[in-house]
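Margin note: ligand = 1,3-dihydroxyacetonephosphate.
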Amino acid sequence: MGRYLIAGNWKMNLNQSDSRALAAAIAAQAGDVEADLLVCPPHVYLNQVAAEIAGTPVALGAQNAYHEPSGAFTGETSVAMLADVGCQFAILGHSERRHVMGETDADVNKKLHAVLAGGLTPIVCVGELLAERESGQTDAVIAKQFEGSLAGLTAEDATKIVLAYEPVWAIGTGKVATPDQAEQVHAGLRKLLSDRYNAEIAKSIRLLYGGSVKPDNAAELMSQPNVDGVLVGGASLKAADFLAIAAGASKAS
Ligand code: 13P
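Resulting structure:
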């Protein structure tokens, strides 16, 4: 595992053949990249993408997971099912899950424990709305999401998670956080981790930034001391852009 993780969240985009082609194009170049690469396709394409990236350094992740192990939960996908098709990661509490589907910190927390119990790496997302930033509430919002989403997380399990800071106003808007804005929140997250666990554990947890990451801003974001990678939406749908973003990790380090 290197320092940087470059994760592509494909969201609800692409079709079967596009998903396969994108995965294959990324996998073909993955050996040239120093950073760890992760792709998170829609659930229905996980199997096909898994086949394309098999035997390559590209990891597979899900965009969501349900906390119950099985049963009458129409439309949901369990952690065991995700593991069964080769997922190593699951994104939890993405801003679209929180703000479009109404997921709460308590929901995210249940998912966190289920994902860890199932042996996958959770990528827990936090981030403030524009109005919250403009009214000076960013730190308080992040701290509340941190506490609620990570409730009951032991020190041992804390080393197994990834956190992603995704300011809601920067997602899909082309308005990227400045490297200073990202660093400030990331440093705050590191401190929350350090205060709750210890400095060594805090340092071992990768903190990703997400929100309008592009090839031309990725390196500068990742050159910040507390930015250990990026969670990429729109630009992860083009192999060349995603790989150019990943190449930014080498420039940053
Ligand atoms: P964009 O890169 O499209 O802004 O999306 C960011 C994101 O939500 C990644 O999870």
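The mean pLDDT is 97.
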